[in-house]
Amino acid sequence: MRILILGDLLGRSGREAALNHIPALRKSLKLDFVAVNAENASHGFGLGPDMAEALFAVGTDVITLGNHAWDRREIIPYIANEKRLVRPINFPPGTPGAGACLAVLPDGRKVLVAQAMGRLFMDPMDCPFRAIEELLTRHRLGITTQAILLDIHAEASSEKMAFGHAFDGRVSAVTGTHTHVPTADHQVLPGGTAYASDLGMCGDYDSVIGMTKAPALNRFIRKMPGERLSPAEGPATLCGVFVETDDATGLARRIEPVRLGGRLIPALPEI
């Protein structure tokens, strides 16, 4: 199975990069499945239902969120009815939506997508490791589903790496989101799970993690609140990874970076 996983869409430029590139990438990379993190798609904070629908329309199969899941209030009734939109699985019981989605491809193959949120330097949450352990008691890679993708939305690379090793050999891929900076540690772990600490953002990299520079700099230099942060709107770099899995085992054969447009050096896997 050929899978594209994209990091946090940041504002208008990030949304447009995804909307423009996903249809062509589905063809050129012969993709079977596309997952996108879009918790920052709406002016940097949250996701609007109309934006989710636009992403689904161009070929996104599942969208994940994160700590900004509820910044757009209208997403709350939408997520209650849209199974393809996934919020962190370790939110407290009773939170709207679901932390995992079992998607069925047109040919009958199944892909489980789940998201967990880290606890280091983040809001207090239930244990992400325990939540995924419980999920995997109901889904077996290569038996009940042909691929399992975990989005670990976390601040600390140590927590993300621990998460990857904890589930190595039981899921197809563990990829990090949230920090908006792509890491160069993409690899297939010893047990066969594809891993990357952070996918980076789909957004303008002439910025401070996607936000316009001047207000962000003032916060660091003067240590005073200033104007509200807003997304940089220059040309975006589409950032993510391409993962190829074995349908028989569900484990990864390879993982490679995907970077298109904007300021970062391009990277595209050969097919």
From TrEMBL:
Protein name: Metallophosphoesterase
GO terms assigned for molecular function: 2',3'-cyclic-nucleotide 3'-phosphodiesterase activity; metal ion binding
Matching SUPFAM superfamilies: Metallo-dependent phosphatases (SSF56300)
InterPro entries reported for this sequence: Metallo-depent_PP-like, YmdB-like
Keywords annotated in UniProt: Metal-binding
Native source species: Acidocella aminolytica 101 = DSM 11237
Pfam families registered for this protein in UniProt: YmdB
Residue positions binding Fe cation 2: E39, N67, H153, H178
Sequence positions that bind Fe cation 1: D8, E39, N40, H180
Catalytic residues of the enzyme: H68
